[in-house]
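Exercise 7.
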Amino acid sequence: MSNICFTPLVKNNFLNSDYKFKNCNVNKLFGKFFFLFILFFLSNTSTLLSQWSSIKTISQNLNLNSIYAVTPGHIFIATDSATILKSSEGGFNWTRTSGVGGISQSNNLYTIFFIDSVNGWAAGTKGSAVKTTNSGNTWTPMTMADGNITIKQIRFVDSLNGWAVGNSGKIQITTDGGSSWSIQHTFQSVQSINSIYFMPEDAQTIWVAGNSGFIAKSTNEGINWINLNSGTNNDLLCIKFGDRNIGWAVGKSGTILLTVNGGINWISVPSPIIGAGDINSILVSSDGSAIIACSNGRLYETYNFGNTWVDVEPIFNQSINSIFFLPLLLYSVTNGGNIGITYLARTRDEICYDAYNLCLNKCNKGQTECIESCNRMFIDCLRKSSKINLIYY
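Solution. The predicted structure, written as tokens, is:
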């Protein structure tokens, strides 16, 4: 193996990889076509790209409702019984704080959000809401503008400005980090707004979705709203956008909606769920990729705007309520206290590396030309790589 042109120096993962090169000029036809074949195979085979998955059960009596991860060292989960879980070890070990901020444990927390590793907020039933300014070490209560409604989702654009949506069609807003809240807008005809989304660091354009197929859009930070025609009467549970044009909304009875023009028009996408089932959450990318979390305990991923779907491990026996993506890691949480961690090798660099290893495995010991051909194809693959990870929002 002394004639290999390329030597990978793997650190923690391929986001932190260094590469060394030696000079070589071999470009054999076999290596070229074999490498291209396995590169195509890897790029289109989800099973191989999901390298491993792990399931950890916190408590079978505890429903995990919402997860947010800033880094692998700052992961938080909002659960029933006014409890927040925190992990500083990539999700493999957790600390548990019950009755956060003095909230009664008869209340459930349904949403959690962090703008950075320090500032975070969580909320749920009966206006229960808390915030932290020290990475979740302590939580203090917030007084919402309407303390009687259940808050379904809370989201901030920076450490001061945030929105909360929930029952009664009300949108609440804060401009001081959650110290005070006011009603910004009320949709009289909507029983519940279940989801709110805007692009990171820019809340000029906001989308909300809720019961009976409700979707609305604001282009001035929530001051004025336009109701959009979703084409469905099913309750929508989550709305996300990969960029300002490509967006998805999912919900009850396997509903999947797609827009490519910022929400002006929506089309129905066939659901991969067999039989009855809801889609509780979705992660999306600007390239047409998406991952959905379903009440049947399954995760599905598409790379082509929902034309085809493939399974993503792990498979649960309980409803998956929330999912979150960090580079290479997909986190999922369920009823019954389960936390799933899936390693997704979705970067172009990693696909090149996997193809390189398979190519080398086809070379017999001492076949220098075969090995060098694999090396050259790998280097060419890396040179064409954008070196930008697929990012899910």
